[in-house]
Amino acid sequence: MRFMLLFSRQGKLRLQKWFLATADRDKKKLVRELMQVVLARKPKMCSFLEWRDLKVVYKRYASLYFCCAIEGQDNELITLELIHRYVELLDKYFGSVCELDIIFNFEKAYFILDEFVMGGEIQDTSKKSVLKAIEQADLLQEVRHPCGASLGSTP
Amino acid sequence: MALTIVSQIFPREMIPAVLPLIEDKLQHSKEIIRRKAVQALYKFYLIAPNQVQHIHDKFRKALCDRDAGVMAASLHIYLQMIKESSSGYKDLTGSFVAILKQVVGGKLPIDFNYHSVPAPWLQIQLLRILRLLGKDDPRTSELMYEVLDESLRRAEINHNITYAILSECVQTIYTIYPNSELLEKAAKCIGKFVLSPKINLKYLGLKALTYVIHQDPNLALQHQMTIIECLDHPDPIVKRETLELLYRITNGQNVIVIVQKMLDYLKESKEEYAIINLVGKIAELAEKYAPNNEWFIQTMNAVFSVGGDLVHTDIPNNFLRLLAEGFDDGKEDDKLRVYAVKSYLALLEEDDALYPQKFLQVMSWVLGEYSSLVTDVDPEVILTKLHSLLRKTFVTSETKVWIMATVTKIASRTSCSKAVDEIIQEFSNSLDTCMRQYAFELKNLCKDKELMKNLLPFDASCSDMVVDASLSFLDGFVAEGLGRGAAPYKPHHQRQEEKLSQEKALNFEPYRLSFASSVSSSGITGRQSPTGLSVGSDTSVNSAETGHKETSTLKLEGVRKLWGKEGYLPKKESKEGKEKEPQTASCSTLSTGQVGDPPALRFDQVASISEEDKEKQQLASTLFIGLGSNAGVSLMGKAETATQKFKRRSKINEIQHSEEVSDFRNSAAADFGPLLDTRPINMEDSEGSLHTRLRKASLSSSDIVEDNLAFEMPQSLRKSGLEERLSENRLSQSSLFADSNIEIFQPSPSAQCESASKTPLIPSLPEELEELTHSEIVQLCQSDALALYLCKVWTDDSLLLTVFVSNKTTAVLNAVNLVFEEAEHFQILESPSYQFPAIEAESVERCQKYVWMDKICTQGVLSGSVNYQLEMETRLDFSVTLSLMDFIRPMQMTTEDFGKLWLSLSNDVKQNIKMSSSQDTLSAALNTLQQKLKLHIVDVIGNEGILACQLLPSVPCLLHCRTHSRMLALWFRSPCSALPDSLLYQCQKVMEES
């Protein structure tokens, strides 16, 4: 996998993860162009794209687009399921996740992604073990407030 | 958690520092840590494979880990490694199959289930690995059939994830060695996919169809209607995939419809990558299947105008070559050309149409070459049109140069033209120096119509000009250069390393001077730009274009200057340092200059050729007795294409070459051999020149084996003569074995593969090889009929693999073909295959291959196969493990040289290693290194020692050792970054062992 992006329907980037070293300028350009392409597509169209030399797999959850760029030989469907699994994980962790959760607790979202996908390859497919790892990390952190979820629900 | 960071973006220089820590973590008690350590190693493997080589067996351990997560993580590494070379891991097929069986059978903990499917990611990973392993390998594939069937059966639930597994399965089934039962099932699956109402599945189904189609076109027929529906699908991605599918099934009958569909799509699409891709495909189809001329030209026009300047340069080049070379039928060709000219004229009619630059270039070239075929159009009209084009601002200067060339061509065929005069007038004062140059050339040419016609013969674009690929006319000069102590010619790959230092050594001054005096300096770029496009792929355009331009330059400035002593320098340089374009240009100036000039002029030149060259000419003429008229031809040529093609051509013709050389030697050995001896020309070159000359001589081919005897003798004579002279200039390539036989010192194309005379069934090395250091003869593989043995011979400048094929049957084996697969790390000089014409009953034949290491690795596998015909076609696979040490040779040098080289090298690696008690002195350690690693001890000063070695062909590596308190501090330096790492690893191994 080359990179993973999360952006909203308005074209606001919410989360990005690059698995290959890319220059900042190229990143920005790629993100901008890819967002345009994906946002222009209609809901009934297929969720795979051949874009430049990449294959892009995207899926829309409510107002958020999850978007993965993969190599030529990778399996598209499984990537789609990977996205789904990630959403499930987020959902489980935050308890019915919404866009605001990700905005305010972006670091948690990153942690989960790191536990789930490492170096561009899927690391752990079992939901339980990922969540366990995250809980442990949370304990380690000794945060003052138990969780940022309360913040997320106020606005 | 630091492990997570490690696996993210990580610099390769830091790997050695953290690697031991991560290795420790592989033994950690927690699964998650082990898993992450494996992942981190995977990342390292991606960044720098050679640094983690020594822990491959730890990967194996990870594969057998009791935690499924760790095992899954290790699969990533295996997938990557198998992708690189599948042959080394065939033995693991069984375990992969077993794992998959367990996974499919639901033996994994319930955690790993996803929508009640057991560990889908793991399954897909495994399927992918199996696919790579089973590719074209019936034996390995057989192991998989059962489990594939099983997973197909299990994946019946209606969910995305099962579809993912299915599609992966299908792909695997089609990639591995086919099994009819599975194929049938897979076809059914694809059918399900294509017909599915879900768009994602449809897309995947189409995708599957595209790679299945060349195996089973009937499948596409079954789904005809669906495909047609998809073609009008609102989603452009599905449409594109459908077109891709159609592209694969295109044939002569359906090409028009398909290309039309493609063009429609092309017009709609705006994305750059898609356009480039599609345009390429259309052009390819149009060339392959064009039903008639009109259609072809129209399609190409559409391609050029829609594709614009995005089209790949190959497309216009191929198109023009097709036009120039034509098909078999001359009449058809003319019709095609006439049609092309007419359509372009029509296109140019529209005044304000904007055409892409490449299209304009194609138009102008066609008009220039073939406009006279169209009789009913006045050339004056064309010229005016071109003139107006020249004035347009959107036309780039490169295109303008093309147009100017066209104007020149047309002008040569018309008597007097007002438009031409106008153009000359206008551009003689142009600010663009190139344009001004052309205007002047044109002006001068117009004064002499006769010459002009000679220069620009009609339709000569594809009459091949014979190229003296070896630049044999330079041999004399090279000889002189060598005499004065210049460096000998080195082949390209060798030179790349030394490029920088050599560039300093070369004196460019005279070249600049003489060239500048003959052509205005901007002319260089002018000349380069129109040809630069076509160089390489389109020689026909090239020859016409350069031909006339170069000569015109010469005519203007006078030839003598270039042929003077001074003028020779650039030629020599351009040969020795081909890296610079302008130099090649200068070469072509000289050589093509000769082509176009009337014969009288050529004699002039010959007369003015300096002393030493005369000698060479005489030699040439003696060689060319009976081919006298060709001598001039062989001297001419397009040096720039020659230099590019040199390597390739010599490769292609090697075998033929050796035959011919030996033939020729047979007849002419007496007077030819000594001549060669006195000529210290560089090796490669003389081979090449011989080659081209001999090719012309029509020699009857006789038995090779017989000839070899006669051929071997002068060959060695000449080589020894050569070697003596070369060795003076060769600092680095001193002999490894003092008593080595000089005969096989140099790898030469002609000495490459020779069938040895009969030897007993147990193979033995020929005498001349026996004297070199060599490995034991080991058996590679065997079947009922054949046995393969291998012996590595470490010659001075390469690794010589000698493969013995022994025929165990009592019948003659015919057409035994030995092929080495292309390996990433190794380079086989000359061709990777060898055919034994016949192997007698119960006898042994041998074949020799010189191997170099291309990319550094501590150990690599070179695999190959032997095909033979005995009742039925049989194939025998084998693989040879080559280690870095096979390619390391000592490097003789003085301490001063060492110091200089040390400072010039940038990549260094330092490491302390513990010395065992048996070798606690420096000298003992150095001796170990010298004996085991073939390093050369340059000097020992106190408790410090310096050593040098080189990786073949010529990558030096220097080592500085120091002992202090039972530690040996190693410090490597080399121009190549990977070499010190690998050598360090070898050192560690050696020191541990002893």
UniProtKB/TrEMBL annotation, chain A:
<feature type="domain" description="AP complex mu/sigma subunit">
    <location>
        <begin position="1"/>
        <end position="140"/>
    </location>
</feature>
<dbReference type="Pfam" id="PF01217">
    <property type="entry name" value="Clat_adaptor_s"/>
</dbReference>
<keyword id="KW-0168">Coated pit</keyword>
<dbReference type="GO" id="GO:0030121">
    <property type="term" value="C:AP-1 adaptor complex"/>
</dbReference>
<protein>
    <recommendedName>
        <fullName>AP complex subunit sigma</fullName>
    </recommendedName>
</protein>
<dbReference type="InterPro" id="IPR044733">
    <property type="entry name" value="AP1_sigma"/>
</dbReference>
<comment type="subunit">
    <text>Adaptor protein complex 1 (AP-1) is a heterotetramer composed of two large adaptins (gamma-type subunit AP1G1 and beta-type subunit AP1B1), a medium adaptin (mu-type subunit AP1M1 or AP1M2) and a small adaptin (sigma-type subunit AP1S1 or AP1S2 or AP1S3).</text>
</comment>
<comment type="similarity">
    <text>Belongs to the adaptor complexes small subunit family.</text>
</comment>
<keyword id="KW-0813">Transport</keyword>
<dbReference type="InterPro" id="IPR011012">
    <property type="entry name" value="Longin-like_dom_sf"/>
</dbReference>
<dbReference type="GO" id="GO:0006886">
    <property type="term" value="P:intracellular protein transport"/>
</dbReference>
<keyword id="KW-0653">Protein transport</keyword>
<keyword id="KW-0472">Membrane</keyword>
<dbReference type="GO" id="GO:0035615">
    <property type="term" value="F:clathrin adaptor activity"/>
</dbReference>
<keyword id="KW-0333">Golgi apparatus</keyword>
<dbReference type="GO" id="GO:0005905">
    <property type="term" value="C:clathrin-coated pit"/>
</dbReference>
<keyword id="KW-0968">Cytoplasmic vesicle</keyword>
<dbReference type="InterPro" id="IPR000804">
    <property type="entry name" value="Clathrin_sm-chain_CS"/>
</dbReference>
<dbReference type="InterPro" id="IPR022775">
    <property type="entry name" value="AP_mu_sigma_su"/>
</dbReference>
<dbReference type="InterPro" id="IPR016635">
    <property type="entry name" value="AP_complex_ssu"/>
</dbReference>
